[in-house]
Amino acid sequence: MNNQSFARFGGLSAIIVGALSILYAIFFLVISPRNEAVGAPGSWIILAVSGVFSSAAFVALYERLRPTSAGFALWGLALGLFSSFATLAHGAYQALLILTLSSAGEGQRAAIEMARMVPSQIDPAGLATFGIIGLASLVTGFLILSGGLLPRMLGYLAVVNAVLLITLFFATAAGAQTLILLSGGLTSVIIGPIWWILLGRALRREPGAMVSSIPSVA
After folding, report:
1. Of 7, 86, 112, 114, whose CA is between 20 and 30 Å from 101?
2. C-beta neighbour count of 12 within 10 angstroms
């Protein structure tokens, strides 16, 4: 295996993350209000799985952007991997809490419900799943725009997605529901999936061929 083999795997992982982002929104926004027993654990499981695949995508992205600035590319990788593993841990923990409710006694159910209400020590107010990954996306966007190793459109999308994610983090921390719905809906249903899927397509192509294969914004 060579670096291009992993680049193709990382690209496929990015495409999967984009699809999982849409699936997460469906479970969280559509299914959960109607059937919480299915929607709540389903959304957390999807979030956990996306953490696994996003880690591979960030490594492939680092390999592609390293020639532009090794230091900033490494910083973006560190932020992305931290977010990926925190997302995996947070999603798995919440899913396990919900799934144990069905077999828990009355006292255990009260304890589990209380645990679900306490801010996550791993990902308080979406610090990793929104804030840190938003910062990673911002670093990535500027690297793409300054280096020209990926289509400029991806750089602009990364910056827009970063603004939405960081806004979502602060809105979540402040409990601003309208802003949460607006920024969360845009990043999880529209901008985020487009970014991940186009990134995946770009990473799966040879470095010399992909810039001309995806439309760029001058």
Report:
1. 86
2. 18
Q: How far is the C-alpha of 112 from the C-alpha of 12, rounded, in Å?
A: 36
Q: Which residues contact 72 (CB under 8 A, 6 or more apart)?
A: 139, 142, 143
Report the run of H or E that residue 179 belongs to, with start and end: helix 177-185
Instruction: Decide: residue 73, CB within 10 A, 0-12 exposed, 13-18 middle, 19+ buried.
Output: buried
Residue 46's nearest CA partner among 94, 6, 108, 82 is: 94
Q: pLDDT-based confidence at 4, cuts 50/70/90? A: confident
How many angstroms separate the CA atoms of 112 and 110, rounded?
5
For residue 148, count other CB atoms closer than 10 A to its CB. 12
Quick check: 198 and 154 in contact, CB under 8 A?
yes
Would you say the C-alpha torsion 140, 146, 148, 154 has a positive or negative sign?
Answer: positive
pLDDT-derived band at 28 (thresholds 50, 70, 90) equals: confident
